[in-house]
Amino acid sequence: MAYLKSNDLFTRTEPERLYEHIPKSIVIADHLLTPDNIGALIRLADNIGASEACFLGNADDHCQSKIKRAAASSRDNIRWYFSEETDLQKIVSKGKTIVAIETADNATCIYDTQLPENVAFVVGSERFGICEEVLAQCDMVVYIPVPGPTRSLNVSHAAAVALFEWQRQMREKCRIMNDECGMKAKTNDEAFHSAFCIPHSPSKYRHVFFDLDRTLWDFDAAAEVAFERIYEKHDLKSLGIPSAHEFHEVYHPLNERLWELYRENKITKDDLNRTRFLKPLEHYGIHDTALADHLSEDYVYWSPRIVRLVPGTMELLDYLKQKYNLHLITNGFQEVQDTKLSLSGLKPFFETLTVSEEVGVKKPDPEIFHYALRKANATASESLMIGDEMAVDIDGARAASIDQIFFNAKKEKAVGKSTFEVHNLLEIKEIL
User: Which residues fall within 8 angstroms of residue 141, CB to CB, at 6 or more apart?
Assistant: First the structure.
């Protein structure tokens, strides 16, 4: 028997395939006291393939650097955050069963309890456990039997036992389902692969969801032309701005940051539209809010009317339309995205359009994907999401249990994992 690195083993056995068939779990911790335990839970949530880890309490009470050190590389692999919200229904997405890991009077032994597929696990603080207010909101309470003389488990150890017992039960459920379908494996190795590593089959897809900007619509190319037009119209050269291209170079990173804040609901649509031009003007010493408003109005008018598509867009859509139901999910503004679709000729290809403004949440929130699925009358297991942003399109779809194609046109090293990855749109024809 020879030692084998974990990455080599898991590349071969693909345990993550289990999550193509069950929803991802969530880990919630109630007011943990030590950064080591917080970091350990982030690492554990990453290990198990959870969609996120939420820590009830104030982030300012903790040393972030110690947490990140304990979490190691997992700090960049999974969404984790602090929340002072105590209403678990506002944290946990609809459909999840909230399971407390606690020694309460109504708790059942975890090994004798059928755990739900769509689950959020809650653990308590090192000193006080789960508070009564949080415990009362849980749908189930399970305990872990401890036969040794020390009867309390470290919080990260307790969470690990619970999460991997849940994973074991899900694996067994997959095995039983496969056996019932007449696919019973003949050897232990085959049983493992059959029950835990169900192969992906592209033919299962019926619905394909696309992001719009920078996936099909060449956002940057259209923006460059729009900037040239507003530069000329408002004679920005006379104000000391050397060129439309340089103005756009200053604008771009500021705009990206503002969109990030907009996705996080930290600024409004109006804040974004005004500030994204006010800040670049201020870079050149121009403090003119009226001009910023005019530039924003003209940009919003021109940017969707300058049709620029990503190479391969029409050929790919012509190909896919014959085989799949096509849909769009976008964080853009409703009126802007409608204009793009109408003027570009893209509209006839798509059966539904889901815009964040109508849903009230933005990608990567799983709820916008669930909303789009309902609108398309589709299920997650038969759907595929295609997008260019790992943290927005791919991570969001994964959290909603939807397979993904990461359109990595710049061939950048991505922080995260996707079902597939392509570098140009026409490569998708090889997958579908």
Answer: 99, 100, 101, 102, 104, 106, 107, 108, 135
Give the Cα separation of 140 and 119 in Å (integer): 10
- Tokens representing residue 317 in the block: 């859509």
Q: Indicate the SS3 state at residue 326.
A: strand
d(CA 121, CA 27): 5
Q: Where in the chain is the domain with CATH 1.10.150.240?
A: 219-302
Mean pLDDT of the chain: 87
Place of tokens 């570009």: 344
Q: What is the DSSP string of 164-175?
A: HHHHHHHHHHHH
Architecture of domain 6-199: 3-Layer(aba) Sandwich (3.40)
pTM for the model: 0.54
Superfamily grouping for domain 219-302 = Putative phosphatase; domain 2 (1.10.150.240)
The pLDDT tens digits for 13-64 are 667 666 666 788 999 999 999 999 999 999 999 998 888 999 999 988 889 9
Number of neighbours of residue 334 by Cβ within 10 angstroms: 13
CA-to-CA distance for 49 and 54, rounded, in angstroms?
14
* Contact of 422 with 407, CB cutoff 8 Å: yes
Rounded to an integer, what distance in angstroms lies between the CA atom of residue 356 and that of residue 361? 6
pLDDT above 70 coverage of the chain, percent:
89
- Contacts of 390-393 with C-beta under 8 Å, sequence gap 24+, read 390/414, 390/415, 390/416, 390/418, 391/364, 391/415, 391/416, 392/211, 392/263, 392/331, 392/363, 392/364, 393/211, 393/215, 393/363, 393/364
Q: Which CATH number fits domain 204-215+309-431: 3.90.1150.10, 3.40.190.170, 3.40.50.1000, 3.40.50.2000?
A: 3.40.50.1000
